[in-house]
Design a protein that fits this description.
This protein is α/β, with parallel strands linked by helices. The chain is 44% helix and 16% strand.
Length: 261
Amino acid sequence: MNLVKLVKLLVVIPTYNEIDSIASLTSQVLSMPENVDILIVDDNSPDGTARLVKEIARAWPDRVKLIERTKKTGLGGAYRTGFSWFLTQPQYTHLVTMDADHSHRPQDLATMIALLTSSNSSKMPGADVIMGVRWMPGGAIVNWPKSRQRLSRMGTSYARWALKLPLRDLTGGFRIYSRTLLEKIRIQSVSSEGYCFQIEMARAACAAQALILESPITFVERTSGVSKMSRGIVIEALFKVTRWALDSRFKPNADKLHYVK
């Protein structure tokens, strides 16, 4: 039995002012041999990203969908919208989170899908999450300054220690989630708006006792557009991780009660 054919993935890509990259990225994803469709969630980009996506969707009406939000509220809000739409579409078995700026490579997605299907073919239960990991053997960073690499490593190291999560790239956003897992999680309870959303989804997955596998990726810093990283995003992550760590000391079952249906 060809397990690849039994897996149908929806790639959810949040966008805000990504007109320079979204056409080439969608073309690369759609050219993959795997069974992959795309959902763009645009946060009312003033540069015309949504208009361009509509043109792409007219050429690929069965494979490219667009949700236009009325305002920019953050990465977390865009992903919650995409996750909620995915859960109304029973034809998809898995959801992929992927950046719009080419920092996540489609060839790495192919490797992650191969790991997913191989886990499903073993005697073990299929993986609930495949995490694309920069900080593991085989992983790499391209075009990031040392200061940004240190910040990312420190963020993951602090979250790993504070939250006792044995994962090597908690802030990375290149992941595959199974429908089975997402149906267990209260998606709207994952309330973070910035890149802390990735840490909180890892918490929620662990609370649901997910089987998480890690796959090395090469992360490429954007060559066009403007980074969405800001001081506010870093502060949100630091504040929330610290609060969650303190809560876990006094309410050890809080995560499962909060995130798991």
